[in-house]
């Protein structure tokens, strides 16, 4: 809203700009580049503050000539942060300057400052506070709208604009890279136009994370080898050459993509997922043996079912009471195969906990002997998987590079998705992920701001 100014206000002059001392009211209000002219309480609550910019001259946006000739001054109401627990009605006395360049086609232009850009209706610090609430505090945009009295589109545009200032992946030194996938949205069904059959589509997205700092470097659509290869090919040669290890889940698509683009880089398989395969094998054996012995699925009165979680726990970390209960379960002659599967799972854990390659190779021999003694399809399948990923397991034993920070980043991504009640726009989804991650990394590692522009590719 624009209104003509009144004669009672004391506007800044050239001499007042030279004097760098601010009055106490301007110091408390602390709007950069502005000084407070007047302030009063409103009858219905809140405060009205009138302010004007310290600068008494500006450059023409077309020709760039500096002008101090004022054509008129207008009052503009803008939104700003509250002060003292009360909302502020900020009135800016904005001058319109005359361009002194005769050859310039623009005759007049308005004043532009760091806090109030061209046609801005709210201050920059108010937008920054809204972005901080969304990215740092994890607040949904609708709640930030209620707190700062801004529209959804305004805050979302500010969040998207903030992600343009985060470091480009090529400017972030990365020695160990983590790759993992997460589900972007719920599974959807659609009818194929040619076959008229219903097909299930699961919208997955892949995340690239600095395995040492947890900084999310990029998010791409899908989890296929082609998508991983495309993102890696977009990186600079210097960035690719500094990579030493890539940590992945036991995924053939990820491994093929890394080997295709980075044949000299070592691949480390995440040990947690390998242990999970061992626990899954034990669960499958327990369920099969229970059906064979009892002719039904397990119930709470069955000892092997009641202690199913005890079977999955690390054997070397059990208490004396836990070991006693575990021995009672495994001593049952009807569940000898469960005991054999549990022994295979524990040998697998010992192999992954080895401190060096010779110890891991010796532990693998014990693991293979336990598999041969078990003589079950489930254990043979696990042994084949270990053999297929043995090179990557040795890299993990030697480097200890895991996907732990990548999984932690995925947990944060899921929290963002739940807070936003899901996302339909992938650009907004990626902006929220990248902006939140880089702010968390800055707090931990103090990465300098404005290292470069990062447009998600």
Task: Describe this protein's structure.
InterPro entries: Transpos_ISL3 (IPR047951), Transposase_DDE (IPR002560), Transposase_Znf (IPR029261). With about 450 residues, the protein is α+β, with helices and mostly antiparallel strands. About 45% of the residues lie in helices and about 20% in strands. It folds into three domains: about 1-120, no CATH class; about 170-270 and about 405-445, Nucleotidyltransferase, domain 5 (2-Layer Sandwich), CATH 3.30.420; about 270-400. A hairpin with a 5-residue loop joins β2 and β3 (about 45-55). The longest helix has 24 residues, at about 270-295. The two termini are about 40 Å apart. The model is unreliable at about 15-20 and about 450-455 (pLDDT under 50).
In short:
Residues 433-457 are annotated as: Disordered. The protein has 457 residues and is of the alpha+beta class.
DSSP strand (E) fraction?
15-25%
- CATH fold name of the largest domain: Nucleotidyltransferase, domain 5
Q: What class do helices, strands and sheet pairing give?
A: alpha+beta
What are the low-pLDDT stretches, counting only 5+ consecutive residues below 50?
14-19, 449-457
* Distance from first to last alpha carbon: 40 Å
Q: Topology of this structure?
A:
Blueprint: E1 2-4, H1 14-18, H2 24-29, E2 34-41, E3 47-53, E4 58-59, E5 66-67, E6 70-79, E7 88-98, E8 108-110, H3 124-135, H4 141-148, H5 152-163, E9 176-183, E10 188-191, E11 198-201, E12 204-210, E13 216-221, H6 225-233, H7 237-241, E14 245-248, H8 252-261, E15 266-269, H9 271-294, H10 303-306, H11 308-312, H12 320-330, H13 336-352, H14 357-374, H15 377-388, H16 390-399, H17 404-419, H18 426-445
Parallel strand pairs: 3-7, 9-14, 14-15
Antiparallel strand pairs: 1-6, 2-3, 4-5, 6-7, 7-8, 9-12, 10-11, 12-13
Helix pairs in contact: 3-4, 3-5, 5-18, 6-8, 9-13, 9-15, 13-14, 17-18
């Amino acid at each position: 809203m624009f209104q003509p100014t009144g004669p009672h206000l004391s506007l800044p002059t050239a001499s007042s700009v030279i004097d760098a001392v601010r009055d106490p009211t301007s110091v408390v209000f602390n709007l950069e580049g502005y000084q407070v002219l007047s302030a009063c309480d409103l009858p219905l609550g809140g405060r009205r503050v009138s302010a004007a910019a310290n600068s008494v001259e500006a450059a023409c946006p077309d020709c760039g000539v500096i002008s101090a000739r004022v054509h008129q001054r207008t009052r503009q109401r803008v939104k700003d942060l509250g002060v003292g627990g009360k909302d502020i009605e900020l009135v800016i006395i904005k001058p319109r300057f005359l361009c002194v360049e005769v050859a310039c086609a623009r005759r007049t232009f308005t004043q532009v400052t760091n806090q109030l850009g061209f046609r801005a209706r709210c201050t920059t610090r108010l937008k920054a506070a809204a972005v901080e609430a969304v990215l740092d505090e994890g607040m949904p945009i609708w709640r930030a709208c209620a707190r700062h009295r801004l529209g959804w589109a305004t805050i979302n545009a500010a969040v998207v604009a903030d992600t343009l200032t985060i470091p480009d992946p090529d400017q972030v030194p990365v020695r160990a890279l983590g790759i993992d996938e997460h589900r972007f949205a719920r599974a959807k069904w659609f009818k194929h136009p040619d076959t008229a059959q219903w097909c299930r589509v699961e919208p997955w997205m892949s995340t690239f994370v600095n395995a040492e700092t947890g900084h999310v470097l990029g998010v791409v659509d899908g989890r296929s080898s082609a998508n991983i290869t495309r993102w890696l090919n977009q990186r600079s040669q210097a960035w690719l050459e500094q990579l030493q290890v890539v940590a992945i889940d036991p995924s053939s698509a990820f491994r093929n993509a890394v080997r295709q683009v980075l044949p000299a880089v070592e691949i480390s398989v995440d040990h947690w997922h390998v242990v999970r395969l061992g626990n899954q094998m034990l669960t499958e054996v327990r369920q099969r043996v229970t059906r064979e012995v009892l002719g039904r699925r397990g119930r709470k009165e069955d000892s092997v079912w009641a202690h199913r979680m005890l079977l999955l726990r690390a054997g070397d970390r059990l208490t004396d009471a836990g070991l006693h209960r575990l021995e009672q379960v495994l001593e049952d002659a009807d569940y000898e195969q469960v005991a054999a599967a549990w022994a295979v799972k524990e040998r697998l854990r010992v192999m992954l906990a080895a401190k060096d390659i010779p110890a891991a190779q010796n532990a693998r021999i014990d693991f293979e002997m336990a598999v041969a003694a078990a003589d079950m399809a489930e254990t043979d399948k696990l042994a084949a998987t270990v053999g297929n990923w043995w090179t990557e397991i040795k890299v993990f034993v030697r480097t200890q590079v895991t996907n732990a920070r990548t999984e932690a980043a995925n947990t944060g991504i899921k929290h963002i998705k739940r807070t936003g009640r899901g996302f339909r726009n992938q650009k907004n989804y990626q902006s929220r992920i990248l902006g939140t991650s880089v702010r968390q990394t800055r707090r931990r590692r103090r990465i300098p701001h404005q290292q470069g522009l990062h447009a998600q590719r």
